Amino acid sequence: MKFYAVARGRKTGIFTSWSEAERQVKGFAGARFKSFKTKQEALAFLEDPSYINSASSTKDIDCAPKKKKTTQHQTATYEYPENAVMVYTDGGAIGNPGPGGYGVVFETGETFSGGFNLTTNNRMELLAVIVALEALEGEARPICLHSDSRYVVNGITKNWAKTWKKKGWKKADGSPAMNPDLWQHLLDLLPSLDVRFIWVKGHAGNPLNEACDHLANSTARMPGLPDDTGYLKSRIDSD
Question: Is 205 a catalytic site residue?
C-alpha cells in the first residue's frame, strides 16, 4: 500500500488511493504532494514538505516549477512561497486593435472580467493585472501573479516600465513607450503589495490560464462595450 501526502491542495492530509489524492491536486496551481511507502514518512512530509527520506523510493511529484535547464521560449523556473495568493490573468483584442477583453481567475474560484469596443492585446493584458491587484488591496501574503504576456512580465521583472518612466515614457531608441497610463497605474499598485510576476505559456492546458482566456474572449464578443478612453487618447496624441 502507498500513502499519498497532500501538503498543498484542495484538501490536505494522507490518502491511501491515488484517485482520491488526485482529486485534491489536479488543476490546483502550486499543489505539493508525494507518495510514500509508509505512513510515518507521509506524516513527516506533512509536517515539513521539504522532508525527503533518501532511503525511500518515493518520486517527488511536487507541482511547483522545478529548477532545470530551459530554452528561451520556456517558462522561467519558480518556487512558490508558502501561503501565497495564486492568481492568473489574461487579455486580448480581436484584430488587435479591435474589441477586447480581460479575465482574472483566482485559485479560490473568484473571477473578474471586462472589456472595450476598441483596444489592444497589450492594454488588456495590463488591465487584467491591474484589476487583479486592485482586488488584493491590503493583502499581506505573497501574491503569485501568472500571465502569458512577456510584455507585462518583462515590463516589471526586467524594469522596462520603470526605465521608460524615467525617460519620460520613451524607449531606448527615443520612440514612445506604449500604454503609459496603464503602466503608471500598475507601478503605483506595486509598492504596497508583495507580488511575484510569473510567466506561463498560453494555450498549454493550464486550467486557470485557459479560464482567463475564455473570460477575455467571451467578453470581447459582448455587444455594447464601452470606449477605452486611454487607447483613444493615445491615438489622438499620435496623429
Answer: no
Do 107 and 32 have their domain in common? Answer: no
Q: Which of 225, 216, 201 is nearest to 132 (CA)?
A: 216
Decide if 62 is catalytic.
no
* 125 labelled catalytic: yes
Is 181 an annotated catalytic residue?
no
Contact 135, 193 (CB under 8 A): no
Q: Which of 91, 100, 103, 114 is catalytic?
A: 91
149 and 217, same domain (yes or no)? yes
Q: Are residues 124 and 197 in the same domain?
A: yes
- Residue that has been written with the C-alpha cell 506595486 in this structure: 190
Tabulate helix, strand, coil % of the chain (nearest 5): 35, 25, 40
213 known member of a binding site: yes
Residue numbers of the domain that contains 21:
3-50
76 domain-assigned: no
148 is in an annotated binding site: yes
User: Of 16, 17, 19, 13, whose CA–CA distance to 32 is shortest?
Assistant: 13
Task: Quickly tell me which residue has 462595450 as its cell.
Answer: 225
pLDDT tens, 79-132? 788 889 999 999 999 999 999 999 999 988 899 999 999 999 999 999 999 999
pLDDT in tens, 90-101: 999 999 999 999
Determine, yes or no, domain membership for 134.
yes
